[in-house]
Amino acid sequence: MKGLAIRNHRAFASGALFLTFAVLFFVAALNYPAGTAARMGPGYFPRLLAIVLAAIGLVVILSAMKPAADGQALRNWDLKGLAWITGSVILFGALLFPLGLVGALFVLIMVSSRASPEFTWMGALANAAVLIALCLAVFVYGLGLQLPVWPSLLN
User: Fold this and answer.
1) What is the DSSP string of the chain?
2) Helices 9-29/44-64 angle, 10° precision
3) Per-residue b/e over 56-80, b at no fewer than 16 CB within 10 Å?
């Protein structure tokens, strides 16, 4: 059928990823009781999130198949950039308790900034300063999360 052809491959792939994560979240949430809207159980929000993600995925997929959709092909994946970002998140998790939030965020931002083709040291340092200040304000002082702020050697 001509009307159901995929015209925007990038949008279609994005929608498929939304649907994939929706199914994974929903299946993982099946191990927890859902409860009701009045008395929500631990599985209520993950299931609701999965339903919302699935709806978004379906809308994106259907919009990629409309006759009026822009024709865009999938590009090759930037595996180098993906490795920089994935590595920075792993480093953040490994360094949070030894270096504290400030040190781990600094490493995360500097390493993940290397994924961008427009990387500059000054831009990354400015980005780190602003994001560290925002994270401290929101998570430590605003929400009161019990995170180590400074390296464990300084405590």
Assistant:
1) -GGG---BHHHHHHHHHHHHHHHHHHHHHTTS--B-SSSB-TTHHHHHHHHHHHHHHHHHHHHHTSTTS--BPPPPP-HHHHHHHHHHHHHHHHHHHHHHHHHHHHHHHHHHHTTSTT--HHHHHHHHHHHHHHHIIIIIIIS------S-GGG-
2) 160
3) ebeebbeebbeeebeeeeeeeeeee
Q: Which two tokens stand for residue 33?
A: 């009781």
> What pLDDT, on a 0 to 100 scale, did the predictor assign at position 1?
47
Q: How many residues does the chain have?
A: 155
Give first-to-last CA distance, the chain, whole Å.
Answer: 67
pLDDT along the chain (155 residues), means of 10: 73 93 93 86 90 96 82 81 95 95 96 92 96 96 92 77
Which pLDDT belongs to residue 43?
A: 86
Single pTM value for the model: 0.64
148/155 Cα distance (integer angstroms): 9
